[in-house]
Amino acid sequence: MSASTVRRWLYQDALKPWQHRSWIFPSDAGFRPKAERVLNLYARTWGDIPLGADEYVISADEKISIQARCRCHPTLAPGKARAMRVNHTYGRGGALTCLAAYDVHRARVFGRTEPRTGIAPFMNLVTQVMSQEPYASAERVFWIVDNGSSHRGKKAADRLAAAFPNAVMVHTPVHASWLNQVEIYFSVVQRKVVSPDDFTDLGEVRDRLRAFEDRYNATAQPFQWKFTASDWTICWPGSTGTPPITQKNPPLHWQHDQPPNDFRS
Fold first, then answer.
1. Which residue in 8, 76, 199, 258 is deepest, having the highest Cβ count within 10 Å?
2. What is the pTM of this model?
3. What is the spatial distance between Cα 90 and Cα 172, in angstroms, rounded to a whole number?
4. How far apart, in whole angstroms, are the C-alpha atoms of residue 3 and residue 251?
5. What confidence score (pLDDT) does residue 231 get?
6. Distance (Å, rounded) from C-alpha 236 to C-alpha 241?
7. In 10 A of CB 256, how many CB atoms?
């Protein structure tokens, strides 16, 4: 059917997807300083002091519930003038969690798979990274994480520092995991590796994730992250010490409607 037919049907019906936009008020009282810490680390500064050559920034998180779905009929690859055809009916082959640590300035990914998420799987990832050079002997290694249960709060930061004294955990603000650069890598994985999730078993999922990680590390360049603390004036109702809200300086929930330009390279 033509695009004009679809537009006409939607116009006549109650469904108007183009009128839907998502927004959120920041609930973290320390949103601004937490966001600035993360953004400054991407610019290789910490407390207004440039990072040294032996200091590194790691962005880490988990991608949960990657499923193995064995299709009842083989998937047909796309061809000339033909889209990929994926059978809807499938058998469940289980699910696993993919954990990844991304070296922001060296564009290197360290990944692993676990049956589920949790404190122990996350610390397994940390050990995998921190037990090898250059991180083992680095002056400091900053770990940027969100507020997931595997690495939430001061207890998680203390646990990391106790295991590896040169590691520093830095949390993104609540409702701001999009500031974590590893999410860009996960978006690439979603599009290029696990979509469609047509796998015979979990072993095939692991193999494909590992193979993609090897290819990525062989050719990747750091993300061209241009969203810095100096570019972004954060203000929201009830805040102090911020410029007045104007069309040129909108409140934060307006800015969440549309990510900044060049947010993802």
1. 199
2. 0.78
3. 38
4. 36
5. 66
6. 11
7. 17
